[in-house]
Design brief:
The chain is of the alpha+beta class. The protein contains 4 helices and 7 strands, in the order ααβββααββββ. It is 20% helix and 25% strand. Helix 1 crosses helix 4. The longest helix has 13 residues.
């Protein structure tokens, strides 16, 4: 499918997460965040990060994860090289500045719901089996270079994580 439809109405308790996924798929950005920003620029929007991973020997060239609630931002050479939204937990707590949410929401969105919402929004996606193993499934949104992975949970395929990649990862613009 090509071209975006203006707005798709999504109902149910997973609606905030589905709307978040559609926004990421459409733009490759999470609110004001995008790959290529500096750590300082990210902190201007989100404030100080939560230091969950002590780095005894920090090196400029080694990628490092920074955390804001459940949001994970991968930095290397002071640039964002990946943004991950982990959706395998019981609730998803992201900074309000990137979501507009006042409280965490239940993130476990089934594969069928995600692809139906992408299709209804006119967003092209492709299967990406090279990105996962075993019982997992992945789709890539070429226009935003976003990867969404799904893992079988309780007999159904549910959203596992969303990973926004730098625009030039696969030679795309």
């Amino acid at each position: 499918m090509n071209g975006d439809k203006e707005r798709v109405t999504i109902a149910g308790e997973s609606a905030p997460c589905v709307e978040l996924l559609i926004g990421i798929a459409r733009t490759g950005e999470l609110g004001p965040l995008r790959c290529g920003m500096t750590l300082g620029e990210v902190q201007e929007h989100l404030g100080p990060f939560h230091d969950r991973m002590r780095d005894r020997r920090p090196r400029r060239w080694r990628p490092r994860l920074y955390f804001w609630n459940d949001l994970e931002v991968l930095i290397c050479f002071d640039r964002v090289i990946g943004i991950t939204v982990p959706m395998w937990q019981e609730s998803l707590d992201l900074p309000a500045v990137v979501t507009g949410w006042e409280a965490p929401c239940p993130p476990r969105v089934p594969y069928e719901t995600v692809v139906a919402a992408l299709d209804a929004s006119g967003i092209t996606w492709v299967d990406a089996p090279e990105e996962v193993m075993e019982d997992a499934r992945a789709i890539r949104i070429p226009r935003s270079n976003t990867l969404i992975t799904f893992w079988a949970v309780d007999g159904s395929s549910r959203t596992y994580k969303v990973f926004m990649l730098p625009a030039d990862r696969n030679g795309s613009a």
